């Protein structure tokens, strides 16, 4: 009878360990993604914009991270119009949440806002 030798199991990193073994193919693919993101100007992000007062009026827009809030407002209004949802006015402001009292500065960059979900509503009349 032939005795089979038991092969030791490959060691796995512990649950909290950050050590990973990466193959050359994985390293190549990740470096290509980094180069492509740098060529795009830093990358893109998926942003959700909801119309205030409606739970179902929501659009998702892919934006460059260096785009401004005013660019996002224009893109969201265009996306609403493309779906056949026409808003009462083009004079809108973007808010970080439904409970926010102050709108976002239109010259602020999307990457600096720290959020991806926004509320669109008419500007307050002064």
TrEMBL record:
Domain (DUF7054) ranges = 44-121
Q: Which PROSITE patterns match?
A: PROKAR_LIPOPROTEIN
Q: Where is this region: Disordered?
A: 1-25
- Classification via PANTHER family: BNAC05G50380D PROTEIN (PTHR33270), OS02G0448600 PROTEIN (PTHR33270:SF6)
Name it. DUF7054 domain-containing protein
Q: What is the lineage of its organism?
A: Eukaryota, Viridiplantae, Streptophyta, Embryophyta, Tracheophyta
